[in-house]
Amino acid sequence: HRLGARVEGDGARERIPAARLRRLGRLSRLATVAAHDALAASAPADREAAGVVIGTGLGALDETIELLEQLREVGVAEVTPSLFPASVMNVAAAHVSMELGLRGYNTTLNHKEVSAELALYTADSALALGHAERLIVLGVDELGPALHHACRRLGALASGPPRPYRAGRDGFVLGEGACAFVLEPLELARARGAAPLALLAGVGAAGGERPLAAIGPAPEAGRVLGPDVEAGVLALERALEDAGLAAAEVDLVVGCGCGSRALDRLDAEVIARVFAGRAVPLSSPHGAFGSWAAAGALRVAAGILALQRGRIFPTLGEGGADPELEVPGLVGRETAAPLRAVLVTGHASGGASAAVVLTRAEA
């Protein structure tokens, strides 16, 4: 069973000189390419004042595994020295700043499946406090054999294509990728002639009780507990409060459902509580791209594109909605809609939940 959504052709050779590319591991390559393209897509700006905030669930997994294998086989005295700095959690943020010439705020967030959302949360706080003028915010994770094997042993992987929120779903498909945004105060963006894609209107986070392996296994191995739902509800409510919006004003929920029996149930219960049974349109991109820990950045990107295009993307996957889940607004086909506000959900094994509210950036 080797089903996975792996990135083929990361474009690094076209963006990074060969002499420097050799020192970048796969995670840093993915992150640097995404950051490069995000910066290139925005209006020209002073890179000296720009920084980077990266969210990653597992970091440089390939280098970490190689380091551990060498420690076991040859001992600490003979380990390749370059593997130590290459395996640290903040290696991607370091390479992004060096390759792009960024001299500002630089940090890495690591909190499993909500790593990217908490990176946005941290970046938003840094801008509000005046610690930075402009930040590249990025979610990145890589797919490797060890991760695939561990998830398979947990019983978390799907037997075929993923089916978020649908009856008969049996797991998720592992993926990988990097997704980056340029985040800055609206007035500064407009002053330099940049056209905002969307507004980060609100962020929220909360913690609760959740088994460390609750996201993947079958329901009996990862039941939805009371505090599970409470933490999720609190995160969504805090994001809406931060945005100054009521739940009734949300036009689309980009959910974190990925085909996991436990996670989809948790997300559905949280959404049902916050929206009081309203059939708010709900869609997840994980049926198309697979799942990786920092894929919350991908959900945010999907929300931005929906706002820009005025179209709701479908949740891919065979079958109808699970009758045991309260998801009356599950979107099965692309539809046009005048979207003004999008709510993005995220829940991690171990207890954390996070949410992001996006609104249209008017011309």
Mean pLDDT: 91
What is the number of helical segments per DSSP (H or I, 4+ residues)?
Answer: 13
Write the element-wise H/E pattern from the N-terminal end onward: HHHEHHHEHEHEHEHEHEHHEEEE
Radius of gyration: 20 Å
Report the biggest beta sheet as strand number plus sense, adding barrel if it closes. 5 strands, mixed
Strand order of the largest sheet: 5-11-10-6-7
Please state the oligomeric state of the protein chains shown.
single chain
The gross shape turns out to be: globular
Distance between the termini: 49 Å
Number of strands: 11
Structural class: alpha/beta
Low-confidence stretches: 220-225
Helix content: 25-40%
Strand content: 15-25%
What is the strand and helix layout of this fold?
Elements: H1 12-15, H2 18-21, H3 26-41, E1 50-55, H4 61-74, H5 83-86, H6 91-100, E2 106-109, H7 115-128, E3 134-141, H8 145-153, E4 177-183, H9 186-191, E5 199-207, H10 226-243, E6 252-254, H11 261-274, E7 282-283, H12 286-289, H13 296-309, E8 311-312, E9 335-336, E10 341-347, E11 352-359
Parallel strand pairs: 1-2, 1-3, 6-7, 6-10
Antiparallel strand pairs: 3-4, 5-11, 8-9, 10-11
Helix pairs in contact: 3-6, 10-11
